[in-house]
């Protein structure tokens, strides 16, 4: 371990507030060392001292009956949403540190590629639980999907890394920017294909109990990189990476923010999935709440929402969470509210409230659903029941659906493990609780010919919380519970 720098400096926000000083940052190469997890078995997320927080519960395979026992309390929470969303006034950016250290690391690279067949189960269209077919995936040729380890290191923050995201554009230096979060820290790295990662900035919030998600976007004014991070207090920090300052802090939810997602065509519109059983749409440029989607028991969510995503055209939203429900919301009629959110003369308290979802089902999974994504006309979801399901919703047939394919994900019972789909749409990658990365090649004529591979490193033995693909789909970054980061590059033949 080698300290990177010790120099001090200050930066100011637009309001003149001091963000703080540069901080030391260090990291350790792990490829040549064995890693022993500081925690075994079930894992804990969040502030240990807060016993009332949901995230202080042990992370394991949760029982289905835990949802039914909460329905009365959840109904009371849902009924109070009218008064809670009005949290838009900006909060002060105090006790915030932003650093720009240099970094260096020495590490051995290794090629790891293990190919094997995987069983795909398929169910009939009326959602019967019996298996209709037992399909076997063809073993993938080694020349088609191999990854090599290019960099790995341990962060010095002392907390699990929960979120990672690539900036979707090439930076001014011709390299890719990566952001990852854990504890009260957000780190920004720079890398390119076949190169190691370089630390560019480190943001720390001394008042924050923990960041759970981080997301990149492009500033609509000058097209500079913009970074948002959501924490367990419902606060979203908006960071201008180029100017090295926090431009805004918004109270976007009443409880912990589990995931955020930007509109595919408007980087000012931000979706927030929260512990407060709601999905909220914010205009971060004007700090205005646009819409709240809660359902209030009418096909909506009854428990904490863990994941959210936009459709490609931006007209639909899919969300899922602890109540085993997958809910699709239609927001195609919110154009007026979105337009008014840019008008500073409009009252901030006027927002839309969507009660009835476009589609809702709880027949896909039998446990917590911690990740869901649109993929063209399909929806892909992952649950703690160790299954990944791709289906087509059929709202015109009383919320029925058609299963396209289904994968088993071995050793993946912990919740809050999120998969990623490459920007090219070809690859789907997911980690598990023992440090393995599983990758599927979705470009296939049928489920029988979907190629699959998995790989890892002997030093990576703890849960991989999230995976991210580079914009060219050739780089894969995985962040883990033991504060480690792993960079895998696709071997191009």
Explain briefly what this protein structure is.
The chain has 493 residues and is mainly β. 4% of the residues lie in helices and 40% in strands. The strands form 9 sheets. Strands 1, 5, 9, 35, 36 and 37 form a 6-stranded antiparallel beta sheet that branches. It has a 5-stranded antiparallel beta sheet with strand order 4-13-12-11-10, with no helix packed on it.
Key structural traits:
single chain, mainly beta, 493 residues, 37 strands, 5-stranded antiparallel β-sheet, 3 helices
Q: What report would you give on this structure?
A:
This protein is mostly beta strands and 493 residues long. It contains three helices and 37 strands. The protein has helices spanning 65-68, 71-79, 335-341, and strands at 27-28, 43-44, 58-59, 96-99, 110-112, 114-115, 119-122, 133-136, 147-155, 163-166, 176-182, 185-191, 198-205, 211-218, 225-231, 235-240, 245-251, 257-262, 269-274, 279-283, 288-293, 305-310, 316-321, 326-330, 352-354, 359-361, 369-375, 378-383, 387-394, 400-408, 420-421, 427-431, 437-441, 451-455, 464-469, 475-480, 484-490. The strands form nine sheets. Strands 1, 5, 9, 35, 36 and 37 form a six-stranded antiparallel beta sheet that branches. The protein has a five-stranded antiparallel beta sheet with strand order 4-13-12-11-10, with no helix packed on it. Strands 6-34-33-32-31 form a five-stranded antiparallel beta sheet, with no helix packed on it. The longest helix has 9 residues, at 71-79. Mean pLDDT is 75; it is low at 1-28, 32-89 and 99-143.
Largest sheet: 6 strands, antiparallel
Structural class: mainly beta
Low confidence ranges: 1-28, 32-89, 99-143
- Quote the beta fraction: 35-45%
Would you count the extended β strands for me? 37
What's the pLDDT, averaged over the residues?
Answer: 75
Distance between the termini: 35 Å
Q: What portion of residues is helical?
A: under 10%
Rg is: 22 Å
Shape: globular
Number of helices: 3
